[in-house]
Amino acid sequence: MHHPIALIIIDMQRGIQQLPERSRNNPQAAERIAVLLAAWRSAGWPVVHIRHISREAGSVFAPGQPGVEFHPPLAPLPHEALFEKNTTDAFLHSGLERWLRVRGIESVALVGVASENSVENSARTAGNLGFRTLVAEDACFTYAKTDFAGTPRSADEVHAMAMANLHGEYARVLDSDTLLGMLPQ
Question: Domain Isochorismatase-like, which positions (predicted)?
């Protein structure tokens, strides 16, 4: 018997498309997420959507802004779980942990944006809470940024470091095809 893995889709909202033009990695991430989402729905396994709601009035993620809406191909169905967060951690003050525990879900698979931000923070918390945590690295993405020492880092470098921070300690980092292989046939 397969124990279901909850697919947790983090911050795949229209506002992420409205960020200032910066170089990003994994341009196929949304398509990879859509493939995973379709497979999860077909298997009848739990799907959780996380929506970022900003506390800053001028943010594209502020309540009432179009940026809050989900990327249309990844929008939740009425019966799928939806949690809102206003920090970089999907578990903090959201009820997500309780929702998973009540359903006896012990494993989670995280995808979405940004690799070093909400994905990494949520995966760390999931691992620390004792969930078997998987991160599909090709279904996550981020943007180029300058590190603390002032060195510009490419989106690929930022992403790779985030995945390195997680793998083996907080989560198992894998690709989406490997994750798809975990679904019941």
Answer: 6-176
Is there a domain that residue 185 lies in?
no
Q: Could you give the dihedral angle defined by the CA atoms of residues 27, 112, 32 and 153, in that order, rounded to the nearest 10 degrees?
A: 30
Measured between alpha carbons, how far is 155 from 74 in angstroms, rounded to an integer?
Answer: 23
8 token code pair: 């947790």
- Residue 152: the pLDDT is 96
Domain that holds residue 85: 5-180
> Structural domain tally of the chain?
1
Residue 116 has a pLDDT of: 97
Q: What is the residue type of 164?
A: A
Contact 111, 180 (CB under 8 A): no
Query: Is the pTM above the cut of 0.85?
Result: yes
